[in-house]
Write a structure and sequence with these properties.
CATH architecture of the domain at 386-559: 2-Layer Sandwich
Structural class: alpha+beta
Distance between the termini: 56 Å
Strand content: 15-25%
Shape: rod-shaped
CATH superfamily of the domain at 386-559: Histidine kinase-like ATPase, C-terminal domain
Radius of gyration: 61 Å
CATH class of the domain at 386-559: Alpha Beta
Length: 568
């Protein structure tokens, strides 16, 4: 036996942890995690995609602005070239009349930051609107560009240079002229680089973005701001080697001094200049960082709220479950239970069910106690009935065998009432058969002393049990105190159905009748309470000089055989 018990114990021990109950808070937290984690993951994906979309929008905006700015600068340079071409064909220049040429150009450019000059073959300025006419010739400060113009016989646009006459930062547009009395010479337009700033600012860039125009040597010609870490006008562009940059339709990444920048690059075929629009990479990623922080902070707040809500719900459920536990214990001990007003409807439903179960248990216990009393009462009555039956049978018997035979018949009749209920419970019990089965064991041998009169009426099971109990009680009392106590008493039972009411009348007559006392015994309680309460009937007892009469008025719905016991 000891050996066989070991595996069972091991099995129970092994399976115990798997079935260990967990608090409802655990399940609520798991439910919250299942709901929140995918939501945060989905939000993170949306943020990432939104950041990528914003970056594409910024990229489109910046590259478009860079292209527009470069086109604006190119248009201004083209306008300068057109001006030089027109000036190269003027009659005064072709005839060598520099005074007339100077006066005409000076008047045309008055109030602008644009100046026209002419260089001879030795790169000396023979005329310049920046100074007075007839001033001594000055050697050009941009000889390489002038030499290139002579050699290429084409227009040349210089980078940033410092004017020889003015000492200002300028850029030059040079046009070689090989016709006229003064040929060969170079006509040039000198413009202050500050005049380009308006072109750089023609397209408004987002905050944090800077733009610079850089010549082929990497020198900044003009910049929108001196705060972009790339240098000022006239300084070398510090963020990248311009020679390595190419025009791009997308943003490129530049790295300088350990910091990353995002930039749009546009190069001009006309001037050879490079336009760079840039901003720190952190500026572009900042919206994503802010959104991530917002998501994190919002997630923490939401998680805190969820924890508080789960805690509150756990408290509510815990209190309700403990209340149900107390109600269940009261139900188990047989105490009455009243439904409580729980905040959770499902638990409130269970509480109502427990109250109903308690009510039914109380009712069942009451019925059981009543049935026990009825059983004891019937047992006593049965003894009295059997004794009376024996006396009555003995008075009418002439021999012992005759007595035994008659006595057995009466005993068997007493048991037939129970068989009648079992045999006809479904289709309904006939009232006449029910009354006959209940009073047959008590009837005297003289059948003329009993009258049964009434139509055929069927009863449902509950009504049959109650009326059978009442008929048994009345018959017992008739044997003890009424019509069947002597040899001359009579019993008349009549019934009729009037609309929705069954009228049942029990009338006893007896000689030397003695009225019963006012004490209410168990039999009277059965008749008045069981028939009256269970069937909703009106019960009336009438004491006549020659005997008792019981009248019952029972609603037809209470005896309807088509209605089940619970419904009835």
């Amino acid at each position: 036996m000891a050996a066989s018990a070991t595996p069972v114990a091991a099995t129970v021990t092994a399976s115990g942890p798997d079935r260990r109950p967990r608090p409802i808070a655990v399940y609520l937290f798991v439910l919250a995690l299942v709901a929140l984690v995918p939501a945060f993951a989905f939000s993170a994906v949306l943020l990432q995609r939104n950041s990528e979309a914003q970056e594409r929008v910024v990229e489109t905006l910046i590259t478009g602005s860079a292209r527009s700015i470069m086109q604006t600068v190119d248009r201004e340079v083209v306008a300068n070239i057109s001006t030089l071409k027109v000036l190269a064909t003027t009659e005064s220049l072709l005839n060598g009349d520099l005074a007339a040429f100077y006066g005409r150009v000076k008047t045309a450019l008055a109030g602008t930051s644009t100046y026209v000059y002419a260089l001879d073959a030795n790169y000396y300025s023979i005329v310049s609107t920046r100074g007075e006419f007839g001033a001594p010739p000055v050697l050009s400060g941009d000889i390489p560009s002038a030499r290139k113009a002579f050699e290429s016989r084409d227009v040349v646009v210089s980078g940033l240079v410092v004017g020889a006459a003015s000492g200002a930062k300028v850029f030059n547009v040079l046009f070689p002229v090989f016709e006229g009395k003064l040929a060969p010479l170079v006509l040039g337009i000198s413009r202050d680089v500050a005049s380009l700033e308006s072109a750089l600012l023609s397209d408004k860039l987002p905050d944090g973005w800077n733009v610079a125009m850089v010549d082929s040597a990497g020198t900044i010609i003009a910049a929108s701001s001196a705060e972009g870490n790339a240098g000022k006008t006239g300084e070398h562009f510090a963020l990248a080697d311009v020679a390595t940059l190419d025009s791009s339709f997308r943003l490129v990444t530049l790295k300088a001094d350990g910091q990353l920048y995002r930039a749009a690059i546009r190069q001009s075929l006309l001037t050879g200049w490079t336009l760079i629009a840039w901003a720190p990479a952190s500026l572009i990623s900042q919206p994503l960082v802010d959104a991530v922080w917002s998501l994190a902070v919002g997630g923490l707040l939401l998680a805190a709220i969820v924890v508080l809500v789960v805690y509150w719900v756990t408290l509510q459920i815990g209190r309700s479950v403990r209340g149900l536990e107390a109600d269940a214990k009261r139900l188990g001990t047989g105490q009455p239970v009243t439904a409580r007003d729980y905040p959770i409807s499902e638990i409130a439903t269970v509480s109502a069910a427990i109250e109903e179960a308690s009510r039914r248990r109380q009712q069942a216990e009451t019925e059981v106690r009543f049935l026990m009393r009825e059983l004891a009462h019937r047992s006593k009555n049965q003894m009295t009935v059997i004794a009376a039956m024996a006396k009555q049978t003995a008075r009418g018997a002439d021999s012992v065998p005759e007595f035994v035979q008659a006595f057995e018949k009466r005993i068997f009749g007493l048991a037939r009432s129970t068989d009648l209920l079992l045999a006809n419970g479904v289709v309904g019990v006939d009232l006449r058969e029910l009354v006959t089965s209940q009073i047959d064991p008590f009837c005297p041998a003289d059948s003329g002393r009993l009258t049964l009169d009434g139509p055929s009426i069927r009863l449902n099971t509950k009504a049959a049990q109650i009326l059978g109990m009442a008929a048994h009680e009345l018959a017992t009392n008739a044997v003890k105190y009424g019509a069947f106590q002597t040899d001359s008493g009579r019993l008349e039972i009549t019934w009729r159905r009037d609309l929705d009411v069954l009228h049942f009348d029990w009338r006893e007559t007896a000689q030397n009748f003695t009225a019963p006392s006012d004490r209410r015994g168990f039999g009277t309680a059965v008749l008045e309470n069981m028939v009256g309460r269970s069937l909703g009937a009106t019960v009336e007892r009438i004491v006549h000089p020659d005997g008792l009469e019981w009248r019952f008025e029972i609603p037809a719905s209470a005896i309807d055989p088509n209605r089940g016991p619970e419904e009835a």
